[in-house]
Protein: SGNH hydrolase-type esterase domain-containing protein
Amino acid sequence: MTKVLLVILLVLGTFFAVWYFFSKEEPVEKTKKEGPIIFFGNSLTAGVGAGEGEDFPSLVAKELNLSNVINAGVSGDTTETALARLEADVLDKNPSLVVVELSGNDFLQQLPVEETIKNLDSIVNQIRKTGAAVVLVHIKFPQKSSEYEAGFKKIAKKYKATVVWDVLDGIAGNPSLMADEIHPNNAGYKIMAQRIAKVLRELLQPH
Structure:
């Protein structure tokens, strides 16, 4: 009987120790200041292939009832060209949260993965220095997917960023959800927006 009680006490003690540890952890990416939410990316962010107001930043804003949202998507942007406009289009606007959707054009142009990750690291680093939270939007490519994934994981851990993984899963390659070989249509962007909104909803909750 004594042994049974000891086992029960040990189990309960372990449970409460684990609960206490995790309850003390700060959420990695909840916003800590006022300011606009900026969607920073390429043609997917800009909404190529979507009807007016059907780009995923607009859909996320509607879903979460957000009023202070900026779409800073530029078609054709690589991580390098995005880095060059980061200050003017993001940092100078003092955002509270930035959704970064980049890497697709790097992949299409067959740029070295290490250069893409280096540029993303610099982008996220500069944003985090302002106190803004960062959400990285990940796309799984048909080649070198493990290298990209490892890079995204490293950046997320280093800067306490959140990642929306494989945002085009089930969309890319599905003719009913794509406007062309690269860009979703309205229905495809709606699915993207739902996936991103799910993450943002948690980050924007009062804390």
